[in-house]
Amino acid sequence: xxxxxxxxxxxxAIIDEYIVSAEPVGSRAISKKxxxxxxxxxxxxxxxDLEEMGFLIQPHTSAGRIPSDVGxxxxxxxxxxxxxxxxxxxxxxxxxxxxxxxRLDKTIxxxxxxxxxxxxxxxxxxxxxxxxxxxxxxxxxPISDDAVMFIIxxxxxxxxxxxxxxxxxxxxxxxxxxxxxxxxxxxxxxSYDTIHExxxxxxxxxxxxxxxxxxxxxxVYESISELDDGEIYVENAKSILKYPEYRDIDKAREIFxxxxxxxxxxxxVAQTDNEGIKAKIGTENEPEILKDSSLVTVNYxxxxxxxxxxxxxxxxxxxxxxxxxxLDLISNEIDKLIGYISKDEE
Amino acid sequence: xxxxxxxxxxxxAIIDEYIVSAEPVGSRAISKKxxxxxxxxxxxxxxxDLEEMGFLIQPHTSAGRIPSDVGxxxxxxxxxxxxxxxxxxxxxxxxxxxxxxxRLDKTIxxxxxxxxxxxxxxxxxxxxxxxxxxxxxxxxxPISDDAVMFIIxxxxxxxxxxxxxxxxxxxxxxxxxxxxxxxxxxxxxxSYDTIHExxxxxxxxxxxxxxxxxxxxxxVYESISELDDGEIYVENAKSILKYPEYRDIDKAREIFxxxxxxxxxxxxVAQTDNEGIKAKIGTENEPEILKDSSLVTVNYxxxxxxxxxxxxxxxxxxxxxxxxxxLDLISNEIDKLIGYISKDEE
DNA sequence: ATTAGCACTCGACTAATTTGAGTGCTAATA
DNA sequence: TATTAGCACTCAAATTAGTCGAGTGCTAAT
Lengths: 346, 346
Description:
The structure is a homodimer.
Chain A: H1 5-21, H2 27-33, H3 40-52, E1 56-57, E2 66-67, H4 69-79, H5 87-98, H6 104-119, E3 122-126, E4 137-144, E5 147-153, E6 157-163, H7 168-182, H8 192-203, H9 210-226, E7 232-235, H10 249-260, H11 262-270, E8 278-281, E9 293-302, E10 305-315, H12 320-342
Helix pairs in contact in A: 1-4, 2-3, 5-6, 5-12, 6-12, 7-8, 8-9
Chain A binds a DNA duplex through helix 3.
């Protein structure tokens, strides 16, 4: 059987309708819209065909049709009219996103928040993984008699408290060595040998107690390794409760639990490494729990290299058109902003 | 009518039962437990009395009784047997809490998480407000041609990106001035006059462009002011969905929205400034939305001064005994840990 | 090829009914 | 006098039966 233009239009009308109503769509409803000028009987025949071809599903004999995963897929690939953001929406977004440029990770969080606000679905956003981040400065600040704060400045700032016997003066000296040896490098440039060398310098020439130094460097190394770990933020998880597909409270709880475990999310977001905006519909998603949901992802990049992901999670009948447009807009804005934060653009 | 011992025991038995079952408790259920050796008829009479006295409520004629807010209040004040944490639970908690001492705020977050894990209710925890925090160090690190990272180290580390035309050398100099003028002080010690003085020094003797300097100091001042703002974290919000009192998904959504707005939480947590562990039951809570929930709060302190709050939010029939014990334990641990992080204890 | 017409299906809704946990009261009992 | 067994009564919740209507598939007419 052939998927002619009329069938396509009917399929599109059904999906458009289902996206807003969340109820099985009947032939009469489509016919009444009168865009096609066809009677319900004709539509009915076409719908039967579309069902046979796998694009539609009938929940039970006397109900209307709902789109199958295949139907959605075809819709997203070929039918959906790309929604265009209004110019004032774009400008507003730019303003909102730029108003609070304080640190890369804050900006990323804000972008996730805005994507959630724009789409009213749940968003997941990952911060850049550190490999591409050059260390600008390191510091050791004594904050009590037996503890120092270790600080690494890249495009963002990470810190951790280390319990150690270093004196304030020793902190200054060691910090200087650390900067000499490590500043300008990225996390992956730094091997354990480098750390070892630092140890030799400090314990040798500078006469710092080896035991103290080893302990300290252990944490320093750990912190640097952790630079690679991107963070993941979830925004607007509560929107889940808004959609009838998650009316079953146990289902909602399952999803909440899933979203709460960052490992799940990292895996999820890592699975999609393609260019551009991609949708994973229903069973196309690996995790069983998302088989009734859709995931739309986009990369944002830095120096042309993809470094982070922004994802929207919602019901399968999500408003793909709007979600695509929102993600497109926001990822572009982030790209611009990251460049702006990290280099001298604008 | 007098609330004699037998009535008290019956009330206690009813509430204990209702806490686990969430179903109206009938006379037979109490009688069958046989701890009192009374027939259901006798219990029935006593229950009628307790209802008349306002401790119990009968949802409808042919149902058992549930505790009223007054009933819970009496239970919490006088009836509840204080649950004692097992020694190994305590030790485990200490281990878990200490294993990741990196920064004060991380530790606080972790405490909130552990309280949630221990009680399986939602927790809200606020970080110390900054007034008591001494500035250890300030720094300006250039991270691109037109942006520097401004860093303040107290017991924790805060940073923000500032767009400015300062050169690397100028950064070093200004940072030095900032440290001379501000290190060792607390946020409230620093007035706008101090900032003004810094401006004079930098622009005068050091010859830095006033426009650049004013812009920079504006953000510096803002950042220092923000030191006072405690953060608020919510953990385990999803547990809401677990309890039958929130089965109504719209109610659950309302609570989620409430929990999402940090202003609500700040207000909520600010309202309870008493010593020790306090419960607010049902309508004792200000926000209308919590009228079917209970809130248990505890302060944690630093140098004997209350600086932050830990709160548990759950259904009115929460396991008060266990929640009280958990909060008691955790707040004590935090007290110890904060001392440890900030000063030289242990 | 399209559509009007019609019998048929089946979930959703409503009303009627049954069930049973729990009560309050009364009379018997210790 | 306090307690309890016994029983009639109540009422929400669960079950069953019955109705409604949106929607289908098929057939015959256009």
